[in-house]
Amino acid sequence: MNMPNKNERYLIDLINGKLNYIHIDRNGDFNNTKIDWKNSVILSGSFNPLHKGHEELKEIATTMTKRKPYYELSIKNAVKLTISTDEIFKRIRQFKEKGDIVLSDAKFFIEKSYIYQGAIFVIGADLCQEINNPIYYGGEEGLKKSLMTIKNNDCGFLVAGRFFNNKYHAVDDLLNIRREHRFLFESIPESLFRLDISSTEIRLMNKEKGMDYE
């Protein structure tokens, strides 16, 4: 049986809860460097695949906030199952020479806000709508408590408009954001960024072309 290498050992420690996050630099080297998240802007995603829209959004968010940018990938998917080690390494390889990544096991932003205290998270309007849906929190009180926790951890959101439900939506089009929570969500102007294609559509196109995203 092969002994795990340094990067694999870091990943094992993250899976086992010994680390909150792993920092992966532009060269693909894993480390547990302490980072000042108050000076960071984080673009979270599954990056399946990483595409030009992600890269453009990262650049615009960096310009708007004057903060250091990081991509963030969670090792858990939507149903809280851990993504396979091979799949994690495959997705990470996409970022080589393209930017720093942090890897965590935090799926929800309330969890991320404890790890990355002071950070600004970059999201799309479709995800913003979900974040503000009380059904995911057991009701209005749960939603309010979650968003106030994110605020108390000194985090906020930068929101890019997205095309969904046959319409382009910016932050101000999302009717489910309560007035008292609106300050947490800053809009990226449509004039700076607009992307109408989704990662799912890009995956399907790549599949038809016989491409992989390594």
UniProtKB/TrEMBL annotation:
<protein>
    <recommendedName>
        <fullName>Cytidyltransferase-like domain-containing protein</fullName>
    </recommendedName>
</protein>
<dbReference type="InterPro" id="IPR004821">
    <property type="entry name" value="Cyt_trans-like"/>
</dbReference>
<dbReference type="GO" id="GO:0000309">
    <property type="term" value="F:nicotinamide-nucleotide adenylyltransferase activity"/>
</dbReference>
<dbReference type="GO" id="GO:0016887">
    <property type="term" value="F:ATP hydrolysis activity"/>
</dbReference>
<dbReference type="InterPro" id="IPR014729">
    <property type="entry name" value="Rossmann-like_a/b/a_fold"/>
</dbReference>
<feature type="domain" description="Cytidyltransferase-like">
    <location>
        <begin position="43"/>
        <end position="203"/>
    </location>
</feature>
<dbReference type="Pfam" id="PF01467">
    <property type="entry name" value="CTP_transf_like"/>
</dbReference>
<dbReference type="GO" id="GO:0005737">
    <property type="term" value="C:cytoplasm"/>
</dbReference>
